[in-house]
Amino acid sequence: MLTKKKLLRNSRLYLILDAQVNSYSELFEIAKKAVLGKVDIVQLRDKSGNIKDILKFSEKLKKLTDGKMPFILNDRPDLALAVSASGVHVGQDDIPIKYARKILGKNAIIGVSCQNYIHAQKAQDDGADYVGLGSIHKTLTKPDRQPMDVDLIKKITKNIKIPVFAIGGIQISNIAEVKIFGIERFAVCRAICQAKDIDKAIDDFKKAIQA
Length: 211
What we know:
globular; alpha/beta; about 15% strand; 8 strands
């Protein structure tokens, strides 16, 4: 059986389930399609929900994804531990990696949002398992953030050895151009979660990534 971290290294399509984009009932239906469509990783992101709601949904998501794909919880290693999630994703202003690692242990997956080379290098040095690099394009999730410089993307993908997932405005139509910069992994939210046909969107993303 593949470990969580081996599953991470083999991962190409990372689905972010954002409670500010869809309701929890919608997100669970999307998650079921993601499991059947064989998305590689799912993350729950809820920046404004209450703890009880996050825990309740996380328990359902853990049961759905268990043994099929890693389930990552955004921001909260304490809640990730409580529901036995595969790991946590943190931002630059969230809990430092070393404390998240103390809470979750050496086998947990810890990802970090990075906006520049210093962020990515520090994440790698501090023991992160992957980097979420963005915003690659303009995105409604971070509307004030400008798209990344191409040379910066190339530098990070060349020098950072842990998995790097492009995030921010990722669409099927721009996968090919992002791959030119050395990116092999993609994190997607709205382009799947707001698609009219979610099954088709997942399938189309997988084909575009593999092309």
